[in-house]
Each structure stands twice: as C-alpha cells, then as structure tokens.
Amino acid sequence: MPTDPANTTPGLPTGREGGHAARPPRLAPALFLLFLGTIWGLNSSIAKLGGMHGVAPIGFSAWQMSGAALLVALACRMKGLPIRFDGAHWRYYLLVGLIGTALPSVNLVNTLRHLPAGVLSLGLSMVPLFSYAMSMALGLERFDRLRALGILVSFAGVLLIVLPKASLPEPEDGKWFLIGLLTPFLYAFSSVAAAKFRPPDATSFPLAGGMLIVLGLVLWPTAIATGQAFLPTLTADVTAIGPASWSVLIAMAISAVAYFCYFEVVRMAGPVIVSLVGYIVACTGILWGMAIFDERHSPYVWAAVAVIFMGLALVNLRHGRMEATRPT
C-alpha cells in the first residue's frame, strides 16, 4: 500500500506527476477510489488464504512485490522516467522499502494466520494516526488538539478489541492483534521516512519502481535462504491450480492494479482525496473476510469499528483542511 505523511496511505510515495492538468469529472476519481479500496481490502483475505495453504510470509511478500515492480517499472519505461540507483536513492529504497514496506508486509501475512482478516483490516486503517504521532514527535507536525483527540479516541477503539475476552474468537488473539498493529506502525514510519529522506527532484513513479525492484532483490534471496520460497503451480487447466498458487497470483494482480489506480486517483483528485481510501479498505476488508471465510464479529469489534472511524475522522478532518490550503 502507498506512503506519504501528506497522504497517510501506506507503502509508496505520493504521486504528483499530474501537475496542473484539468481535473476530470468527480465521478471518475470516486470510482477509482472505490475500486482501489475494494481490491486493497481483498488483499488481507488473499494473504490469509495463502498462509492457510502453506505459503510462507517472506515468499508471499516476494511474489507480491515482484508483481507490482514489474508493472511500475514498465510504466516508468513507457513514460520515459528513469529509475535511479545513486547513493541517495539506495538509502531511500532500503529505508523506506525494507522497514516501511517489506517488514510490515511479512508481519501482515504472519499475523493473519491467527486473526480474522476483517479485524486486521481494521487495524490497517490506523496508519494516519501513527503517521501523525510520529510526525509530531519528530517536529514535522505541530500539536493539534483535535487530531490528538482523534488518536485517543482510536486508541479506545483498540482497547475494545484487545481487552474484552469475548471480543475475538480466542483469548490469545488480542496479543496477535497488537503484533498485527506493527504493520500500520511500520507503514507510518515509511510515510515519515519518505518525507524526510526523499531525494531532491525525485518523482513518485520512479521512486516506487526502484523501491520495489530493490525489495525483490532482497526478499527473493531471503526467502530462498530461509526455505520460504514458493513456486506456484501453473497449468493450462485453471481448475487444477491450487488455492496456494491462486493466492500468490491474485496478490500479484492486486498489487499491480492497485499501484496504477493509486497514482490515477492522485493525478485526478489529489493526495487529500486518496487518503480516504483507508476507510474503504477497513470496510471492504471486513466484508471480504465475512464473504470468503464466513467471519462473524462480536459486538465489541463492531463498536471498535465505530470508535476507530470516529478517531480517524477527527484526524483526517483537520488534515484535509490543512492540505487544502497548500499548493500541489
């Protein structure tokens, strides 16, 4: 998922390549945003499906990043945007990519072995909260009472999931939910690092392409060395392809299509609008989990959804107003 403190969507730097081109009708970016949030919400269920059928976390992430790298690198080639590999870019790729993209991806797949996909999708929506807290701690953002209240409200929502014994299917699942929160925390770190270490005069598509290529170069040897590499079984008869192979193929397709949709929404509507995708991801992630795995959630989880969304609204409301006054 993409990365920028001004954008609060995890995993990639914000794209600003659209410049001052005329904005299309509002329906087009809204449809792209809805589609983006829907397929990103599916990602948690697909990762859970792969883990259930023996795809190891590092191997799954290696395939997922490779699919996105192929599309973004191809797009850079077609647009004539060079992918750079000098010292500043390598530092960016390794710091933002490994810590802010690869590690949270592996942690996501690992914790989904123990948690309902919908619950963890709700946790992923907390990236803006972590991003703001980190930015404020590093002096990149000023203290704002309304946004600070939003963080406290969302934290109360987390407690509704972790503390009541009847909230999650198993008593120990609260521990795994907290471990799962490392994923949005690291995505938030990626947002802050992307702003602080972004090479001068860099554009987002080449940065994304270089980062994903480097991730592939790191994840594949790591997967092989740790025995977590996975080779999907491909045959002309699609009915003979097992769920493990399907999970990897679908994850690659989701990553590739999501990167395209993400940059299209930024180009058409700007970073403030695309930051709303977190709400859609949380909602569709819960719905996908219910549809695919027949997940059913306790009243505590539904109450947590309402409370966390209220906190996110407080953070993003002020954020949207502040961003609207800044030139793109």
UniProtKB/TrEMBL annotation:
Q: Superkingdom of the source?
A: Bacteria
| UniProt keywords, alphabetically | Membrane, Transmembrane, Transmembrane helix
User: Which Pfam families does the record match to this protein?
Assistant: EamA
Q: Which residues cross the membrane?
A: 58-78, 90-109, 115-134, 146-164, 176-195, 207-231, 243-265, 272-293, 299-317
Sequence ranges assigned to domain EamA in this UniProt record: 30-162, 175-316
Q: Where in the cell is it found?
A: Membrane
ATP-binding as a keyword of this entry, yes or no, is no
InterPro entries linked to this entry: AA-Vitamin_Transporters, EamA_dom, EmrE-like
Q: Where is the composition biased (Polar residues)?
A: 1-11
Gene Ontology, cellular component aspect: membrane
Q: How does it sit in the membrane?
A: Multi-pass membrane protein
Q: Where is this region: Disordered?
A: 1-22
- Which family would the database say this protein is a member of? Belongs to the EamA transporter family.
Name the PANTHER family on file: EAMA DOMAIN-CONTAINING PROTEIN, INNER MEMBRANE TRANSPORTER
Q: What is this protein called?
A: DMT family transporter
Organism of derivation: Marivibrio halodurans
